[in-house]
Amino acid sequence: MHWLRLSLLLLFTFTSCKKYMSYEGVPPIQEEPSQTVTTSIQGRILNGQRQPVADAGVTGGGRTVTTDADGNFLLENISINNNAAVVTASKSGYFTSYRTLIVRESNLHYTQLELLHPGQNTYNAGDGSVITFSGGTLSFPPSSLLSADKSTYSGITFVQSSYIDPSDNTFADQMPGDLRGIDDNKQQTGIRAFCMLALEVKGEDGNLLSFDGTKPVTFRAKIPSALGQDAPAEIPLWLFDPASGKWTRKGSAQKQGTDYTGTLTQNGYWACGTTFQLVTLNTSLVTPAGAPVPNLLTAFMIKIGLVPMYCYSDSAGRITAKVPADALLLSGVMDRCNNVFLLKELGPYGAKTQEPPITVTFPDNRSLTINGTVLNCNNAPVNRGNVILSIDGLKYIIPINLGYFRITVPRCDDASTTASLTAIESGTLSQSVTTINVSSGTITPAIIICPQ
Questions:
Q1: pTM given for the model
Q2: Cystine design at 245: which of 86, 146, 209, 231 (Cβ 3.0–4.6 Å)?
Q3: Which of 245, 330, 236 is nearest to 276 (CA)?
Q4: DSSP string across 232-280
């Protein structure tokens, strides 16, 4: 089965691309109006080695929390834009990371972000320089940077940069936003990225410098070989806007050999990407027994071209995603161990659609199903509350419904480990902690909560 799993993984990272697609100039599909909702977002912050980042600051809906030792966070009951909820993660030594989600009232959503560690170069601003980074070069003409007062900066310059490979299988966690952009006509569009980079230029005092538009700062960024045959000669250039959580069009870049070249006008995240129309898809992930599959990375890809949009299922397995419109799609889900469990054909969709639940079948030795009960001291069901499952460094928040809770989580293997179940009753906030040894298969814990 290794060759099959590998083939699906390659599909997930677009290595079988066939066709360049762009929908520039096509009338847009009407977007639903945004509104502010009260919702919750949980997630995990990782570094470039896919290890958890502790003590990172995570902000969303005007609230800031700190990640625990396993990189987990919870933004609970925040007020935020339902169509573009922006979560920001930061820690000293890394680029600030951003994720944009579609959220719904009272749901518990999930996301995962990877903090990028920048490479750093220095040069004298008065002399100019060509800076080399992992995926290309940055060219700074002499005296092309400005201080905060807009005077020409001539001191030592610190250039922090990072190349983001759109064909990498961790791209969904590295990229800022969610690959939605605003084009020149102020219309929302999907973006297929062919190159991406992050850039911060600072002076000796540690403050950001701005760019002198009369002396253009230019870049050269490689096109991943997996995407090269689809890369157009001229491509839209995009800058990520942290305030809106979307990309904004900033001119174009040109193809030169196996690279794209263009002009950068400011610090931030930049991308070269073609466009496609979007439509809203609602669905959910369930096991064959009907148990929800939470917190799982899902991609919806155009079948011809494998142009993707990404999202994670929420705590109840639900998905609300912007997907490519009017195209036959493949849906795929991937766990944290890069195991792909599903590749299903969907669509095409020309309008907002509610799709029946998508069934995900996990190998018996790489999943754990919990069918549990929560009772009070009088052996009566606890009607409302949550069970927090901690396993393999991850946290899952499971709703209690009339005394029952259930969940299926993928695991990398069937090795024995310790799982913690913290049951909390709504209203009284009484709780009980149960620790058990688990591996794979199905368990049926019975939890008792007594008033404290």
A1: 0.91
A2: 86
A3: 236
A4: -SEEEEEEEETTTTEEEEEEEEEEETTEEEEEE-SSEEEEEEEEE-EEE
Same fold, 29-114 and 364-449: yes
Q: Which of 418, 425, 335, 339 is nearest to 377 (CA)?
A: 425
Long-range contacts of 144-152, Cβ-Cβ distance < 8 Å, separation of 24 or more = 144/211, 144/212, 144/215, 144/216, 144/217, 145/201, 145/203, 145/209, 145/210, 145/211, 145/212, 146/209, 146/210, 146/211, 146/212, 147/203, 147/209, 148/207, 148/210, 150/210, 152/212
CA dist 143 and 212 (Å) reads 8
Task: Classify domain 29-114 at the CATH class level.
Answer: mainly beta
Tell me the CATH number of domain 119-276, given options 2.60.220, 2.160.20, 1.20.59, 2.60.40: 2.60.220
The answer for residues whose C-beta is within 8 angstroms of residue 13's C-beta and 6 or more apart is 167, 168, 169, 171, 226
Cα 434 from chain centroid (whole Å): 32
Each residue's pLDDT, cut to its tens digit, for the chain (452 residues) gives 333 343 344 444 443 333 434 444 455 566 678 999 999 999 999 999 999 999 999 999 999 999 999 999 999 999 999 999 999 999 999 999 999 999 999 999 999 999 999 999 999 999 999 999 999 999 999 999 999 999 999 999 999 999 999 999 899 999 999 999 999 999 999 999 999 999 999 999 999 999 999 999 999 999 999 999 999 999 999 999 999 999 999 999 999 999 999 999 999 999 999 999 999 999 999 999 888 999 999 989 887 766 789 999 999 999 999 999 999 998 988 888 878 877 789 999 999 999 999 999 988 888 999 999 999 999 999 999 999 999 999 999 999 999 999 999 999 888 999 999 999 998 888 999 999 999 999 999 999 998 76
Contact 396, 369 (CB under 8 A): no
Tokens of 419: 């799982």
Q: Which residue ranges make up each domain of the chain?
A: 29-114, 119-276, 364-449
Which residues lie across from 164 on neighbouring strands? 196
Residue with tokens 């995900």: 360
DSSP string, 212-239: -TTS-EEEEEEPPGGGGGG--SEEEEEE
364-449 CATH fold:
Immunoglobulin-like (2.60.40)
